[in-house]
Automatic annotation (TrEMBL):
It comes from the Bacteria. InterPro entries: P-loop_NTPase. This is Sulfotransferase domain superfamily.
Length: 305
């Protein structure tokens, strides 16, 4: 009986792998066909403004994206937490098919096939990916095929201080990232280098957002809106987004009054946890945090033996 169960398990795994390989082959053939037959579409501007947003989970990504959407006018579409090297419209359409959901499925099918709707602003966001994964040359070459041609393109890098970021990630049990060769701290340091201009992997108009400052300072938000050519109203600043299940600590309890959340003191929750404290034995992490966020009062206790 155990041998039979093992055989069935292996057979099922083989079938799943075969289905995945067939689907990838079909997608590749479809991409080539579209690249040849849709030149007239690929040359048209589809997105008047495009924002590619990247950040580690629990960096305030959803709060900032929701706020940006509320400052934007016209037809705005947000592709949330998508995978690199994939056609996001096709992935969503096929997911709806698998789940037998019909709402808006025709819209997703048209987008997946490259018959794009004109958009005033397209936002597509990535979480827990390394810069190298997001800027993969093959993925970049397929940009117009997957998203449509854009007139103005922005790369928006969101960074939160490591003390509160790591506390929120631990609270939510989010330590792993999508690059198997890196930890979340490795990715944070890479983002910090890009933020400071030590690297320049993001080639579009780059806007780096300090989440701590964005949360606390209306003048800073006004400046970000200006850089993104948004009409500043600050609408949405008190929203706790449903995406990401809200705060790691309070969920959506503070919806409508988000600025009352104590987002810059999350580190205190784990201050006596030895495993949390050990994360800050990383001198490079501490130095980049100091450069970008300055001294965060009280966190010096985390570096004491």
């Amino acid at each position: 009986m155990p041998q039979k169960s093992l055989f069935l398990q292996l057979l099922q795994e083989s079938s799943t792998l075969l289905q995945k390989a067939n689907r990838q082959l079909y997608h590749s053939v479809e991409d080539v066909g579209r690249a040849i037959s849709q030149q007239h579409i690929l040359s048209q501007v589809i997105n008047y403004k495009e924002m590619r947003v990247l950040g580690l989970r629990r960096s305030g990504n959803h709060a900032i994206i929701h706020w940006m959407e509320k400052q934007e006018t016209g037809n705005v579409r947000h592709l949330n937490n998508i995978r690199v090297n994939r056609n996001p419209y096709r992935e969503k359409y096929e997911d709806l098919l698998r789940k037998n959901k019909t709402k808006d499925i025709e819209w997703w099918r048209q987008e997946a096939k490259g018959f794009f709707e004109k958009k005033d602003c397209l936002i597509h966001s990535y979480e827990d990916y390394s810069l190298e994964q997001i800027t993969n040359p093959v993925f970049e070459l397929k940009h117009d095929l997957y998203f449509g041609k854009s007139q103005d393109k922005y790369d928006i890098l969101i960074l939160r201080d490591p003390f509160n970021l790591l506390a929120s990630r631990i609270k939510k049990n989010y330590r792993g990232v999508n690059d198997k060769n890196k930890t979340d701290i490795d990715v944070w340091i890479d983002y910090a280098k890009e933020y400071l201009g030590e690297t320049n992997l993001l080639k579009n108009q780059k806007i780096c957002i300090n989440y701590n400052q964005w949360f606390a300072d209306v003048d800073y938000r006004r400046e970000i809106a200006s850089q993104l050519n948004l009409e500043f109203s600050d609408t949405g600043i008190n929203t706790v987004s449903r995406r990401g299940d809200g705060s790691s600590f309070e969920g959506r309890e503070y919806h409508g009054k988000a600025r009352n959340m104590d987002v810059c003191s999350r580190w205190k929750y784990f201050a006596d946890d030895p495993s949390y404290r050990r994360l800050f034995n990383n001198q490079e992490l501490l130095e980049y945090s100091q450069q970008i966020f300055g001294h965060i009062p009280g966190t010096e206790c985390l570096r004491e033996p």
